[in-house]
């Protein structure tokens, strides 16, 4: 008994440690990290070198569900409310209507390729319909891809909120397949059940999130216990919602968003702990799913799974994304990228366990096929996301250089933070720029020795400066302590050839750079002109063609007002569409207006005047004979 227990602990801990160390390979060669975790699980399984026999589907589903609940809670915790407001409409459209469209199109491919009946085909389509939150968050946050805030938030919110929809669809369709429910009654049952489960999940998530905030801020605990109570309350919300027949995954995501956007005691400690727990959850989930798979069974479904994966990647997901994003003004390049970042991951494999648990005749084939679809997705899409973002001109160049900063937690609910900066060589502070009065240093450490701030003299490169500051001012301090930026060609292409003050009158800018204004007598400043053109909601990288040039938002302040404008004399490569598809509603409307103007112009044009009669027509005998088609010149 004791030996078996020790062996189980040894194997589990060894696999987790091996997964962590193999992550170094991912960072070096750019491989999707979650694929590495999955490969470790496969290698340890019954067909791998580990020879571990694990075929307990209910246990695997239990482990995966708990891990997914933790991942979704952290996803909500890290979602800023400002980003949610900016991207909620397109993201939730993708997470609901997009999942349904993808399910339908994928079901057609499964029906034609695998030959399943329609109920089983719809079930398989639902299993592979959602993107994977863990994969998307890793590639966007850890992978070093800096995108515009609206598009990044759309992808993150979609990946975090579409899992509950796919899970609900899969559970309902599994029950429908077992019960043999008809199509009409199935559609009505799905609609009513989803409304009830989603509504209950949102309600309990809101209440649970406020409960977490109240407990953390009211109860005095040892600092090490705050992460424990938050984790336990998150799982309590997840389980209680499920027992009340609501969506626990929606509830835990909403609760995380409520708690993450509140002022919390020990917030920095909570974020560090949850980051580690999320990594552990991802590793455990992928290892478990890898152990459950049997690679020797893959060749039988390899080609059909490849066919479904190609249809899903190049047809189903792009069509669903294009239709969902039509009303929201995304550019063609942005729609292309959102369509490509539809990675399938652990959630799809986790849902593929349900047909096994339900003992459906096609259960094993569905699981193996879905497993291969996920592998294809991680290999094809996971390896190409950064090159595609660069080709589409969507990577936002950093506005400041690297910053060496550490944040320290203050006790209680203090409204200040203690931040520690190491002064970079040639940074503004190192070159003599003064630190603002509201951020005077409390301590300076130079060459390992504490130095009184009144006798430290001029700050030097390498000094560590301790500053108490309000959290909203940290971004301003980062600019003072950052490594100097070196403007690259990509930066100039993204932000324009010239930098303008947002207060500069647009009329004077047009006169200086020689472009025509859209309306004579323009009196607004350049920043106000851009602000009005985008309806007051601007973000860095927004571009507006004006009179043959482009005005680009280079910087905004905390109140979302334009403070710096770029000017490109020619449309940049990043703004030009790379594909002739994915037009948005404004482009489609412009095309129809153009066609309508052309039609009206043809109708209004005077009829062609008849040619003047020849005053001396040739006699008929002298006219050239007509050549029959396909013959040579006449004799």
From TrEMBL:
Membrane protein topology class: Multi-pass membrane protein
Subcellular location: Cell membrane
Keywords, alphabetical: Antiport, Cell membrane, Ion transport, Membrane, Transmembrane, Transmembrane helix, Transport
Transporter-associated domain ranges (all copies): 491-571
Database matches in Pfam families: CorC_HlyC (PF03471), Na_H_Exchanger (PF00999)
Keyword DNA-binding belongs to the record: no
Keyword field contains Cytoplasm: no
InterPro entries on file: Cation/H_exchanger_TM (IPR006153), Na+/solute_symporter_sf (IPR038770), Transptr-assoc_dom (IPR005170)
Annotated transmembrane regions: 59-77, 89-114, 120-144, 165-188, 194-213, 225-244, 277-295, 301-325, 337-360, 366-385
Annotated segments matching region Disordered: 599-635
UniProt feature, compositional bias: Low complexity: 611-625
Protein name: Cell volume regulation protein A
């Amino acid at each position: 008994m004791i030996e078996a227990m020790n062996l189980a602990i040894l194997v589990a801990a060894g696999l987790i440690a091996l997964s962590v160390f193999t992550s170094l390979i991912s960072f070096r060669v750019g491989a999707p990290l979650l694929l590495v975790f999955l490969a470790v699980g496969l290698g340890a399984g019954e067909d791998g070198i580990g020879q571990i026999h694990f075929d307990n589907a209910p246990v695997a589903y239990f482990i995966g569900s708990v891990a997914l609940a933790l991942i979704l809670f952290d996803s909500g915790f890290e979602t800023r409310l400002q980003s949610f407001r900016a991207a909620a409409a397109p993201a939730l459209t993708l997470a609901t209507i997009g999942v349904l469209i993808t399910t339908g199109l994928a079901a057609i491919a499964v029906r034609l390729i695998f030959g399943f009946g329609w109920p089983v085909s719809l079930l398989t389509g639902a299993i592979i319909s959602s993107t994977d939150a863990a994969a998307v968050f890793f590639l966007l946050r850890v992978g070093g891809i800096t995108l515009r805030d609206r598009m990044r938030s759309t992808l993150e919110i979609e990946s975090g909120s579409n899992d509950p929809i796919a899970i609900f669809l899969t559970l309902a369709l599994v029950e429908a397949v077992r019960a043999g429910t008809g199509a009409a009654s199935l559609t009505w049952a799905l609609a009513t059940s989803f409304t009830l489960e989603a509504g209950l999940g949102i309600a309990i998530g809101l209440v649970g999130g406020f409960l977490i905030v109240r407990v953390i801020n009211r109860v005095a605990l040892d600092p090490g216990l705050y992460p424990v109570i938050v984790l336990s309350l998150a799982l309590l919300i997840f389980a209680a919602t499920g027992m009340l027949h609501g969506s626990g995954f929606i509830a835990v995501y909403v609760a995380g968003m409520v708690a993450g956007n509140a002022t919390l005691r020990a917030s920095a400690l909570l974020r560090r702990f949850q980051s580690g727990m999320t990594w552990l959850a991802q590793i455990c989930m992928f290892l478990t799913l890898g152990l459950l798979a049997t690679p020797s069974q893959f060749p039988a479904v390899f080609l059909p799974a490849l066919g479904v994966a190609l249809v899903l990647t190049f047809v189903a997901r792009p069509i669903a994304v294009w239709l969902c994003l039509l009303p929201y003004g995304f550019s063609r390049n942005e729609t292309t990228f959102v369509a490509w970042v539809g990675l399938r991951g652990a959630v799809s494999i986790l849902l593929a366990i349900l047909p096994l648990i339900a003992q459906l005749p096609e259960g094993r084939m569905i699981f193996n096929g879905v497993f291969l679809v996920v592998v294809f997705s991680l290999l094809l899409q996971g390896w190409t996301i950064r090159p595609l973002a660069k080709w589409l001109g969507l990577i936002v160049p950093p506005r400041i250089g690297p910053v060496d900063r550490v944040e320290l937690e203050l006790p209680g609910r203090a409204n200040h933070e203690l931040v520690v900066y190491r002064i970079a060589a040639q940074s503004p502070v190192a070159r003599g720029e003064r630190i603002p009065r509201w951020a005077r240093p409390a301590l300076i450490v130079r060459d390992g020795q504490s130095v009184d701030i009144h006798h430290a003299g001029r700050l030097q490169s390498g000094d560590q400066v301790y500053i108490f500051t309000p959290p909203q001012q940290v971004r301003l301090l980062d600019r003072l302590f950052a490594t100097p930026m070196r403007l690259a060609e990509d930066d100039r292409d993204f932000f324009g050839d010239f930098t303008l003050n947002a207060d500069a009158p647009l009329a004077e800018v047009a006169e200086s750079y020689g472009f025509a204004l859209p309306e004579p007598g323009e009196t607004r400043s350049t920043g106000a002109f851009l602000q009005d053109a985008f309806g007051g909601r601007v973000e860095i990288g927004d571009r507006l063609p004006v009179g043959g040039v482009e005005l680009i938002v280079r910087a905004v302040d905390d109140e979302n007002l334009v403070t710096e404008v770029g000017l490109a004399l020619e449309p940049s490569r990043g703004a030009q569409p790379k594909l002739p598809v994915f037009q948005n509603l404004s482009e489609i409307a412009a095309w129809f207006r153009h066609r309508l103007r052309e039609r009206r112009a043809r109708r209004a044009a005077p009829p062609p005047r008849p040619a003047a009669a020849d005053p001396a027509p040739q006699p008929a005998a002298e006219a050239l004979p007509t050549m029959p088609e396909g013959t040579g010149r006449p004799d």
